[in-house]
Amino acid sequence: MTDGKRGSAVALKASPSAAAMARGLRGGSNPLGEWTARVKEIETGFRAWMATQPIHVEAAVATAVGAVQGGALGGLMGSLSADGGSPFPTPPNANPQAMASLKQAQALAGGPLVQARNFAVMTGANAGISCVMRRIRGQEDIQGSMAAAFGSGALFSIVSGMGTPNPVVNAITTGAAFAVFQGGFFMIGQKFSKPASEDTYYSRTRSMLHQLGLEKYEKNFKKGLLNDQTLPLLTDSALRDVKIPPGPRLLILDQIKRDPELVRAK
């Protein structure tokens, strides 16, 4: 009996997963909390790595991630059709205007592969162009958002075959429509997310943290009275004093160095 207990103890010590499971059963750890913290740690590390890469590397990665997400969404939407194909058959001897409208309907009602391709191009282009515009302009604004929407709309029109026999004109028209809608949504979003009057001194700080995905540290900035006027003066020790971890500190300082207006303000 003693040998059996000793063998079980040795097995638990030799297996980290078994030991972790045993601690979880005793209530000494929270697997879900540990997994969430690990995911956030990986995400923070990935953002820190991306911030140090050249613009073409960041744009390529952003495009690839956006294309994968859009392809998955498009494939899911296309799988909802009964036969996996377009429910809109092509009528014979149709006039050009009717054919253009039909092509638009077919582009939005294709099978899984067609929809995956169309949405992958659209979302990938939007993510890549947004990334480039953000790096060039130093911030995420309505001009960059509309430029990304125009590019993604034009490419979506070309790839999906909408608007033949005038694909170039239709690509420009579709891109302009995407840009107008995106600009409208951007302005509406800014209006509803407009900070209170007492928070106007933190508007630029809030925008920077939101761009980096570090919104949860806004309270640290306010606690340390680190407002928009202090952004050009921020140092690692100042961010450490308000209890911001090393990874986010690197992202914030790197973003400040990349912002041409903050660099000129120093």
What would you report as the Rg, rounded to the nearest angstrom? 25 Å
Oligomer description: single chain
| Total strands | 0
Percentage beta strand = under 5%
The average pLDDT is 77
Q: Strand count, sense and closure of the main sheet?
A: none
The low-confidence parts are 7-27, 82-90
Order of helices and strands: HHHHHHHHHHHHH
Instruction: Categorize the overall geometry.
Output: globular
Q: Can you count the helices?
A: 13
**What structural class do you assign from the helix and strand content?**
mainly alpha
**Portion of residues in helices?**
over 70%
Distance between the termini: 74 Å
Question: What does it look like?
Answer:
- It comes from Urochloa decumbens.
- Keywords: Chloroplast, Membrane, Plastid, Plastid inner membrane, Protein transport, Transmembrane, Transmembrane helix, Transport.
- One of its GO terms (cellular component) is chloroplast inner membrane.
- Residues 208-258 form the SAM domain.
- Helix content is 72%, strand content 0%.
- It has 13 helices and no strands.
- The chain has helices spanning 2-14, 16-25, 31-51, 55-78, 96-107, 112-137, 142-160, 167-192, 203-212, 218-223, 236-241, 246-258, 260-265.
- α1 (2-14) crosses α2, α4 packs antiparallel against α6 (112-137) and α6 (112-137) runs antiparallel to α7 (142-160).
- The longest helix is centred in the middle third of the chain and has 26 residues, at 112-137.
- The chain is globular and about 60 Å long.
- The protein starts with a helix and ends with a helix.
